[in-house]
Amino acid sequence: MKGYVLAGGASERMGSDKARLPHGTVPAAVHLVQVLEAAGLDAAIVRRGTPDGLPWLRDDGTAVRVLYEPDDGDRHPLNGVVAALEDAAGPVLIVPCDVVGLTAPTLVALARAPGVAEAERVHPLVAHLPADRLATARALVAAGGAAHALVEGLPRIPVPAAELVDRNTRDGAWPMEALRDRLAWLPPGAFARIARSERTRQRVRGVVDPSANRYALPPPGSDRG
Known about the structure:
7-stranded mixed sheet
């Protein structure tokens, strides 16, 4: 079975591309690819538009497959679902890139049969969709319909509430901020050199740390080490 990480949203509430935010040593979307793979699925990322020039690398350095939903119309949360169902030509397990708490056992349970994740509420984009939902997804996109309509009639699969928390705001210090705290004794110029190297290392893996630019250059008039 194929699994897809939906990573085509605008990330307006976060203010930075959620799919590329750090989760461990990899982008958040890649973390979820690895969770899907740990659950036994053939996983890929679904993006909107064209490649941004950064890689999508697993912890072992191998590249993740990425497909692109059309970028010639209005954004809709089901555009990526349509792309996934078309690519798979069969059932799919979908997860959004900002629900990073999902675990392999939960995804194994979802993969057993069509259904939609539910805790305090139904999460329509954490679901096992049968192939025949493609026509419904296309119709909802064309009509600007709600994502919840896609999963009407599917069994509800109980999922721990903590696994369905959307990552819409920062959840602690970004890596560069944590590094700055550990090396607070360094002069700003010296830390800026370290920060530039760390930012480069992150981007080689496809990670975008929102705090990186703040520290990669020394403040005007500061000690440049």
